[in-house]
Amino acid sequence: MLTREFKLKDFDGPLDLLLTLIGKAQIDIRDIFVSEITDQYLEIVRNAPDLNMDESSDFLVMAATLLEIKSRAMLPKPEEPPEDDPETELIRRLEEYKQFKETAENMKSFEEAAKHVFTKLPEEYPLPPQEYELTGLTLEGLTEAFIRIWNRKPMLDDNPESNHYAPRNIRRDVHTVQECMLTLLQSVKQKKRMKFEDAFRDAPTKEAVVTYFLAVLELLKLGQMHIRQNSVYGEIELIYGKYKPKKETDLTTVAGKDAGT
Amino acid sequence: MSEQENNREGNVKGRIEAILFVAGEAVPVKDLAKALQISEKELTGILNKMRDEYDYEQRGFLLKRFGGNVQLATRPLYSEDVVRLLQPVQQQSLSQAAMETLAVVAYKQPVTRAEVEQVRGVKCDYSLQSLILKGMIEEAGRKDTIGRPILYRTTDKFLSHFGIQGLEDLPPLPENETEEAHPDDEEILTT
Question: Does the pTM of the predicted model rise above 0.90?
Answer without folding.
Answer: no
